[in-house]
Each structure stands twice: as structure tokens, then as C-alpha cells.
Amino acid sequence: DLKSLTPRKKQFFVEQINYSIDEILYSGNVTFGDTISRYLQKLGDKLVAGHKDLEGKLRFYAYNSTDANAFSTRQGIVFVTTGLIAQLTTEAQLAFVLSHEIVHFQEHHALELYTYATKEKFYSYNERARFLSNYSRENELEADRMAVKMVHDAGYKTGEINKTFDVLLYSYLPFEEMKFDKTYFNTKEMYIPEMYFDFKRTEISAKFKYNDYLMSHPNLAKRKEQVTEQVSRFRDWDKNMLYEDSSCFFHIRDVARFEYVLNKVYEEEPVEALYAIYILEKTYPESAFLANCKSQAWLDVMKTVVQKKKPGYYTGLPRKKVRYYEGQISILNQFVNVLPRNGKLAVGLRVIYDAYQK
């Protein structure tokens, strides 16, 4: 409750939280009335149905970012990134994510966190960070516990909730792990020897159990263990199941995946864009959008040839850090990096020219 704050702290809190939400809403990363946001609002309304204290008080928006994240505000606005939606495999998982954020709003965690963070002035920075992260972890665990009941009451399948944590664990990877075909770039007009793909896949190093001592969220192993216990308290999951995933979710997820590709192109991350395109082309082989994005990605690869034309050559463009990849995308990354200068130019021009002709 805001009454628990001193007038000065109350003013500071209200100003900062409203300033922050305005920054987000007017950032250009949030659109209004778009396909994904309308879907999120419909799903959110379904989850709060029957909760008189929540009905009509929440707004749901897609936040256009490749990061896998979701967050809620004191004003009752829930954001889910397109990057997270792109990673999920069922609507039940998305329902759990939304329920988790709804609980944060319902239980006033934002205000509680602020109060806790500001009441102890004499602690050192490290000590305050430790106390703050511990307190925040309690909020996260509470949100998980209460979200299970909300998902249960909405009639979703029990088995999908815990899979949400698997998605979060691997969310730093591309949205699917698909074996890279060595003949992918070969056409009637272009042939790339398989020797350029003769690399070992870099192993995926994700771990459920890790040190969460100074982190705002508990490690995923703790969260999954708690949710498993909470799920077992409801004995009527199968009988209670009222809702099956609709094709609407998979359409929305594909829209989010296309946004992921576009964002990676804008961010000049050609390897990530190309691997995502490779995955999506399995379903959308004739997509002109993907063909255009592939052309732009290869243009970015070709720019690296120009930037490294000769020692000391300056293009006015900052050099990017070398990225480290795990899984199948690591093979594509090694291929792009090992191609000789003329090879990068040849493949890039071939892809762009073929897309233009088509």
C-alpha cells in the first residue's frame, strides 16, 4: 500500500514508475491493436475470469524484442516479448507466463520491492543487493505458486506448466534446435563443398542448477521443483481440462518468429537471422519476406569483407564483437566465418541476385 511510504518516497515511487511506463509505451517497441497484443488480451481476460478484483483492470501488450522476457507494472500492464512467444511450444506455457505476471500485479510486488530496497540505508551496496535479490526471489516463487492455480482454473493441461522452465532454460538459443543441412545453400547456380561445413557442433551448456545468490530470480531447478509440488495438489487436472491449444497460438508464435528475424536483421546479427530463416523456410518456403531478410543478412556478411579489406582500412562502422554460439547454429556460424573473402561475396551476391530475379 502506498500509505506505508513517507510522502517523499511516495512521490518518488509514483513519479519513477509512471515515467518508466511512459518510456516503454512510447519507445516504438509496443504497438497497439496488433495481432499479438489482441491475442494476449483475450488470453489474459480468460485467465482472470471469475477474479472480481482483476477483471477489467489489466492490459496486455506484445513488446517487440528478441529477448525472452515478460514483466508487469503497478498500473496493471503486462508485457510479453515477441522473443519469448517465439520460444514457447504451447498456449498453456504462455498462460502460465501471463498468470505469473498477473500475480505480481495482484500481490503488489513492485511496491513491496521498492519499500524493502529503500528502508535500510546503512547497508553496503553488496549487502543491499544480496537482501534485495533474496526478497525478489520470494516474490518470484509466490508468483509461480499462485500462477499454477490460475492456469488450473482456466482448464489447461498439467504437463505443460513445467515445460515452461525448459523453454526458459534454453531461451538464449534460437527458437528451435534443427540440424543444419550441409546442402542448404546448393542450387542449380551455386555449389558449396561440404568441407566448409565440416565442424563439430558446440555443445549446449545450459544448466538448471546454478548459483542464484545475487540474482533477482531463483534458479530454474528451484522453481520447477516448487511448481511440480504445487501441481500435485490439484487432483482433477484431466477432468478440469476445458481448453485445448488452438491453431491461433501457433499462428501468433509464427508472427513472433518473423518479428525475431526482422529484429535480428535490424540488429545486424546475420548468423542468427540466417539460422531463424533456415528454420522458418521449412514451413514457409516461398516467403518473399524471408527471401528479402536473407538477402539483407548476406549483405551484412559481405560488409565484413569490406571492413577487413586491408589493415587500417576504416569504413566508419564500429567493429562488432565475435559472437559465441552453441548448438546447430554454431555450425552455420563457423561456416560463415571460415568462408574466404571471395566466397562470402559470391554466396551473398548469388542469394541476393536470385531473390531479386524471383
Describe the overall structure:
With 358 residues, the chain is mainly alpha-helical. 56% of the residues lie in helices and 4% in strands. The chain is built from 14 helices and 3 strands. It has helices at residues 7-25, 35-48, 82-87, 91-106, 109-119, 125-154, 159-169, 220-231, 237-240, 247-266, 270-280, 288-307, 329-338, 341-357, and strands spanning 59-63, 70-72, 77-81. A 3-stranded mixed β-sheet has the order 1-3-2. A hairpin with a 4-residue loop joins strand 2 and strand 3. The longest helix is centred in the middle third of the chain and has 30 residues, at 125-154. The protein is elongated and about 70 Å long. The mean pLDDT is 84.
- The secondary-structure element order is HHEEEHHHHHHHHHHHH
Percentage of residues in helical conformation:
55-70%
Strand order of the largest sheet: 1-3-2
Low-confidence segments, given as residue ranges, are none
Q: Report the count of strand segments.
A: 3
Secondary-structure map with pairings?
Elements lengths: L6 H19 L9 H14 L10 E5 L6 E3 L4 E5 H6 L3 H16 L2 H11 L5 H30 L4 H11 L50 H12 L5 H4 L6 H20 L3 H11 L7 H20 L21 H10 L2 H17 L1
Helix pairs in contact: 2-4, 4-6, 4-7, 5-6, 6-8, 7-8, 10-11, 10-12, 11-12, 11-13, 12-14
Overview features:
358 residues; mainly alpha; 3-stranded mixed β-sheet; 14 helices; 56% helix; 4% strand
Describe, in short, the structure shown.
The protein has 358 residues and is mainly alpha-helical. It has 14 helices and 3 strands.
